[in-house]
Specification:
single chain, 171 residues, mainly alpha, two-stranded parallel sheet, 80% helix
Length: 171
Amino acid sequence: MREIKLYNIAKIQHWYIEIFEEEDSDYPNYRRITNFNRAIDRKLNEITDNKEEQRKIYDIIVHQSWNMNDRTFKPICDDLRALGYTIIQGISEEQDYYQKHKKERIEYQKQWRDTNRDKVRKNNNNYKKRNVEKIKEMKKKWYQQNKEKILKQQKEYRRSLKGADNIERSR
């Protein structure tokens, strides 16, 4: 018995609609289009290795996506059943695992936050302080190295300001 998960049908249909929208835009992004086509090919390869069967499945999904009388997955599923496939109401194993362990994961995250909150804050504060001290040291060192140049520049700047004042007063 050949089986197709309804989740896979929905994903292929979604990617087909994305391709259609992208091609319909004024400036289609062909990189996105090729990525969606590759994703569709991968899903079809998971279902069957026969290229002719893959083409039939894809054509059914594409043509029935535009069925305006019945906007559900029923026409797609009926046509796939006519090809000899059974439709499974299922999701992928990764998603199934994710859904089953969601509560455990949330509890673990809460416990981790509660036990490590103070450590994280302490490390962040220490890191900030450590950087501030290093920056202050670097500034002091730089200032000591360039102290004479800085003082000369300050004197020249003050002289230029005094000269500018004298020019303005003479006008």
